[in-house]
Design a protein that fits this description.
single chain, alpha/beta, about 350 residues, TIM Barrel
C-alpha cells in the first residue's frame, strides 16, 4: 500500500462557460485559484477535439478540416512539431505574472484528448477507407485502424511529455469515446491493445496521470482502466449514480490510484422561472454527497471534482448566468469539503 497516499483534494475537469478569449482564460484561472481548487486546470474554452486536430490538420497534409469535421485520406508521417503547447504555457505565464497565487494551490492541471477519442472524430475517405467496415459510427473512422490509434497515442505522448516538462502536476486524457466502444466487451480492439495505447499515451507523464470518461462505466471498462498505469480515474457520479455500484473501495486499496468522483452536476437543464439557487447544490447536500463517497471509497482514495466540464452551461444559460452557476457550484463544493475536513 502507498502510505503517502492522500486523498480529498480538489480539481476540475477542464472547460468553463466563457467565450474563448485570453482575458476570459485569465479570469477563469484566477477564479479557480481563489475559490480554493487545489489543482486548477487551464480554462478549456475550445472544443477538446479541435484544439488538437485543427492545428494537426495544418501539419498533416492528408488530414483536412471541413467545418467541424475532420477527414483523413491517406497515411502520413508523424509531424515533428508539437501542437497545443500554448495552453500549458498559459499556466506558466499566468503564475509568473501573479506569483502571489502560487501559495494558494498545490499544483496545476492540464487536459489533453486521448487517442481513442481523437481517432473517433476522424472520418476516413479515399484509399485509407477501403476495407474498413463501419460499426457504431455511420462511416469508417480512424479509431477502427490500429496503426492510426498508435500514431495518435504517440502524438499525445509527446505533448504529455512537454506538459510534464513544464511542471504541470496532473495531466488528464479526456477519453469519452471509450465509454462508447467498451460495454460488456470492447469494439474494434482487444483489451490488451486499449491498455497498451493508454499506457503509451501517458508514458511520459511523471506526475499524476488521469483519464476522464463520462457516463456510466461498465465493469469491463473499469477493469481495463484499473490495469493501466493511469493514476486518477475520473468519472461522473451525480448524473451517473450507478457508478457507485461499478466501483468499490477494494479497487483502490493497495494501489496508487485515485477515484475522482463527480460531486456537482454539470449537465443542467433550465427550469421555467428558475433562480440561481435552483441550479446550485447547497453545502449540506454536498457534504452528504462527499461523505457518501468517503464511506464507499475511503477518503484516502478520493478526489473531489465536478461531474464533467462546465463549458455546456455557456450554450444553455449564456455567459453571465452560466459562469455564475459554475463558480457557485465550485465554491460550494470547496466549502463543503473544507467543512468535512474539519470534522474528520
Amino acid at each position: 500500500m502507498n502510505d503517502l497516499k492522500e486523498g480529498l483534494f480538489t480539481t476540475v475537469v477542464g472547460s468553463l462557460p466563457l467565450e474563448n478569449t485570453l482575458d476570459n482564460m485569465k479570469k477563469g484561472f484566477n477564479d479557480l485559484i481563489n475559490i480554493g481548487i487545489d489543482y486548477p486546470c487551464y480554462p478549456q474554452l475550445v472544443n477538446m477535439n479541435s484544439m488538437f486536430l485543427s492545428p494537426l490538420s495544418e501539419l498533416i497534409d492528408p488530414l483536412k478540416r471541413d467545418n467541424e469535421s475532420f477527414y483523413l485520406s491517406d497515411n502520413f508521417k508523424t509531424p515533428d512539431k508539437l501542437v497545443a503547447l500554448e495552453y500549458g504555457e498559459f499556466i506558466i505565464n499566468f503564475l509568473k505574472e501573479y506569483p502571489q497565487l502560487m501559495g494558494k494551490i498545490r499544483g496545476t492541471k492540464a487536459c489533453l484528448t486521448g487517442p481513442f477519442t481523437l481517432t473517433g472524430e476522424i472520418i476516413l475517405r479515399d484509399q485509407i477507407a477501403k476495407g474498413v467496415e463501419p460499426k457504431i459510427f455511420k462511416e469508417p473512422r480512424a479509431i477502427m485502424v490500429e496503426s492510426l490509434v498508435e500514431t495518435f497515442a504517440d502524438i499525445m505522448k509527446r505533448i504529455g511529455k512537454a506538459y510534464n516538462d513544464l511542471g504541470i502536476k496532473i495531466i488528464s486524457m479526456d477519453e469519452p469515446t471509450l465509454g462508447l466502444i467498451v460495454g460488456r466487451k470492447p469494439h474494434f480492439h482487444t483489451e490488451e491493445f486499449i491498455i497498451e495505447m493508454l499506457n503509451r499515451a501517458i508514458s511520459e507523464i511523471k506526475g499524476m496521470s488521469s483519464i476522464h470518461i463520462c457516463g456510466r462505466i461498465s465493469p469491463a471498462l473499469r477493469d481495463i482502466i484499473l490495469q493501466t498505469d493511469v493514476k486518477i480515474m475520473d468519472h461522473e457520479f451525480r448524473t451517473s449514480e450507478g457508478n457507485f455500484k461499478t466501483f468499490e473501495k477494494s479497487h483502490f486499496e493497495n494501489t496508487d490510484k485515485y477515484l475522482a468522483m463527480g460531486t456537482v452536476e454539470t449537465k443542467v437543464i433550465p427550469i421555467k422561472d428558475g433562480k440561481l439557487t435552483d441550479y446550485v447544490e447547497d453545502i449540506n447536500f454536498l457534504k452528504n454527497w462527499i461523505k457518501k463517497g468517503i464511506d464507499h471509497f475511503g477518503k484516502e482514495n478520493l478526489v473531489i471534482k465536478p461531474d464533467c466540464g462546465m463549458g455546456p452551461l455557456l450554450g444553455t444559460f449564456g455567459q453571465e448566468l452560466g459562469y455564475e452557476i459554475a463558480t457557485r457550484k465550485l465554491n460550494n463544493m470547496v466549502l463543503a469539503l473544507n467543512q468535512i475536513k474539519k470534522e474528520l
